Write the structure tokens for this entry.
Amino acid sequence: MSDEELDSGRASKSARKREIEALQVLAERMTGLSDKELQRLGVGEQLRAAIDLVRPMRPSGARNRQLKHCVKFMDSDELTEVAAYLDDRQSQQVAINQEFHQLERWRDRLIGEGDEALNALFNEYPDLDRQRTRQLARDAAREKNTGKPTGAGRKLFRFLRESLESAH
């Protein structure tokens, strides 16, 4: 690129390509939003129509071309709210997944370690129903040791989820 092009304020070809690729990624993420969400976020009618065409398509060259077509209707300045909404939505999902995995770890500890894990759980969550928790943990451990289906383990998980959600 020459000094004249840099001084004139025009973006380089590579920068323009990166911008278009970022818009394509944003368009791909927007396909997961509902029509109401898109409308609430102020997405234009043409872009919504183009996204409607992409949704049912399987990953293919045609889908990629349609996503590139969506970019024609996108203005990166107007889509900052959409990008922020998608990022917030993703971070909420990550937090939900982390809580789920923590509950799984507690359940597995309660089944595997017994009273030691129960004491640790009660130290961390003192308001938890001790009798019910002990009974469910013992049932799940007994079930695991006998090789029966994991119904008690699921009950223990559901109980932990409901109890710990109400504790927060």
In short: The chain is about 75% helix and 0% strand. Residues 90-167 form a domain with the Diphtheria Toxin Repressor; domain 2 fold (CATH 1.10.60.30). Residues 80-113 form the longest helix (34 residues). The mean pLDDT is 85.
